[in-house]
Amino acid sequence: MNFEYSLEFAQKLDKQDPLNGFREQFYIPKLKGKEAIYYTGNSLGLQPKKAATYIEQELKDWQELGVEGHFEGKRPWFKYHHYFTEHLAKLVGAKHHEVVSMNNLTVNLHLLFASFYRPGAKRYKILMEAGAFPSDMYMVESQCKHHGLDYKDTVIEISPKLGEEYLRTEDILKKIQEHGEELALVFFSGVQYYTGQFFDIEKITAAAHQVGAIAGFDLAHAMGNRPMQLHNWGVDFAAWCSYKYLNSGPGGVSGVYIHEKHGLDPETPRFAGWWGHKESVRFKMEKGFIPEPGAAGWQLSNAPVMSMAPHLASLEIFTEAGIYNLASKSDLLTSFTEFCIWEACKNNPNLEISVITPSLPDRAAQLSLKAGSKGKQLFDYLFEHGVIADWREPEVIRIAPVPLYNTFQESFQFATLLQNFLK
């Protein structure tokens, strides 16, 4: 599409957008009494208007039914995780028994590492991106220590080439081949939090399997952001949070995917808890753990119902909108936003901006702007003028034009602010 740098063109795109009505299903934060341009859905998504109703329903059932709410009420708590299965399976491209909603992200990654990181005398190394999200780095470091291994000897970190901002897929695949005989696990994010790069999960997984390694992913910034086909791609395991693009509330419940070749095998090692015990005999309270088939067999405890209620409210919106429809709008919206940024730069010599996010198809609903020596000043200026963005040291402003609630008009307005910076 040939873009035009004008308010009229942006408004035209909004009128033509088949998803433009979904914005009305969310609360938009205000700054100085006006709706903000909210560009931090990659950090904390907005609240669905029906989230409170879903929480209130569970409070009502608790109030009126007490413990009987586990088996009575509108959505009995005993099977609460089942209400999420179809929604999650569609988002990640999985079979129903391969997904479950439970715990929080880093907790789930530790549980998955307990199952799938099984270092041997020769095959014990982990390949991951340098500069991964800190929680992943800390988790991996502690896993190394847990196994009595030294991080520097165990973890192979791969960085972009000198002078480049993001990783090339061919370099990742080459590194996997190079260390194939000693690799136990290839562990990557789906979308790199700092640059917004969407990794080629399918190719990375295939390369890992070719050398005999397990392939696992942290999908915190990919879930609800890009369509995925984890089952068809052969991914062994993945986990994600729900409070970013999934709009399910601060600290919201996580989810996991476990390929059926592992999940349907009761001998797959795991840490067990009673909610992962076979559902049909769970309340017999007998010794001897019998795992529920599939990812549900990794559950430890009862579903955190009050946290999961807004998650369900949001997932229903995603199913209504359709992840492929959202991705299509996202591509157009992010491309238009980038176009407007470059037009603003042409009109303002005070702007020191470069975009360090790859081009399509290797990106998602995020643009990371390297803002130079005036970066923090620009970030503060944007906030003063109604833009809620995200500052990441040392010099990056992250913006996330989210297709569910951001508009093309906001993209133009954002660029207009850039154009007027320090003028």
Keywords:
423 residues, alpha/beta, Aspartate Aminotransferase, domain 1, Aspartate Aminotransferase, domain 2, 2 domains, 14 helices, 15 strands
What does this structure look like?
- The protein has 2 domains: 7-35 and 322-420, Alpha-Beta Complex (Aspartate Aminotransferase, domain 1), CATH 3.90.1150.10; 54-321, Aspartate Aminotransferase, domain 2 (3-Layer(aba) Sandwich).
- The strands form 4 sheets. A 7-stranded mixed β-sheet has the order 4-10-9-8-7-5-6, sandwiched between helices. It has a 4-stranded antiparallel β-sheet with strand order 11-12-15-14, covered by helices on one side. Strands 1-2 form a two-stranded antiparallel sheet.
- Helix 3 (85-92) packs across helix 11 (305-321) and helix 7 (169-178) packs parallel to helix 8.
- By secondary structure, it is α/β, with parallel strands linked by helices.
- It has helices at residues 7-16, 51-65, 85-92, 105-116, 134-146, 151-154, 169-178, 201-210, 230-233, 260-263, 305-321, 323-346, 375-384, 408-420, and strands spanning 30-31, 34-35, 37-38, 99-101, 125-129, 155-158, 183-189, 214-218, 237-240, 255-258, 354-355, 367-370, 387-388, 390-392, 396-399.
- The chain starts with 6 loop residues before the first helix and ends with a helix.
- Helix 9 links the parallel strand 8 (214-218) and strand 9.
